[in-house]
Amino acid sequence: MNIGIDIDGVLIDYGKYIRTYGSAYFKKKYNMTIADPDGYSAEEVFGCTRKQSKTFWFLNARRYWTSEPAIEGAAEVIAKLSIEGHIIHLITGRAFTADKGPQRYISRSLLRRWLRKNGIMYDEIVFCPQKETAPEKLAACKRHNIDTMVDDDPENIATLKDSLHMIVFDSPWNRKIGGENLSRAHSWYEVYDIVHQLEKA
To answer: For residue range 39-89, what is the model confidence (pLDDT) as tens digits?
Structure first.
């Protein structure tokens, strides 16, 4: 199978990072606390502006990109799937990776270094623009004949689920999404089981 895998929120715990470091940052700088515990972006979680969110990420992105560990089981399960013959496509809208200019190369280099550090195997990385990520991911999945895509972003899931099978990596921000063409995984070990169920179908 051709398996597409998102990165932020699927390989790395994006939500935990925002809540851990964002809580201290937004409280100290703006006296903001968590406004929506089930939110996805910093704007949703803390009720901040887009500009305030960008400032937070400008100051905290490098630590997130370099020091946060992979989600438990990700490297192990992906290695097993790869050894079994599945083709692994990382398909991401990670900030700056699809931009023009030097930041593009820096962010791609940091991502590849993080993947090596955490033992994440893959056959290819597809970089999608951060703006309009969902339709770009859909186009990438069609180009690479993706059979199933592992993602956590509600917008991505809603856009892709009518065209291919989705494995929803469970998070508070995507629990309202349902449908016939998706499965929900609460861990990477459940992702592994779902892939095998899809093979048998």
So the answer is: 999 999 999 999 999 999 999 999 999 999 999 999 999 999 999 999 999
- Do residues 33 and 46 lie in contact, with contact meaning Cβ atoms separated by under 8 Å? yes
Same domain, 119 and 150: yes
Instruction: Convert 21-43 to b/e letters by CB count within 10 Å (16 or more is b).
Output: bbeebbeeeeebebeeeebbebb
Work out the number of other CB atoms within 10 angstroms of the CB of residue 66. Answer: 12
**Do 122 and 139 sit in the same domain of this protein?**
yes
Same domain, 127 and 187: yes
- The edge-to-edge listing of strands for the beta sheet with 87-92 is 124-127, 87-92, 2-5, 148-151, 165-169, 182-185
What would the pLDDT profile of 136-158 be if each residue is shown by its tens digit? 999 999 999 999 999 999 999 99
pTM above 0.85, yes or no: yes
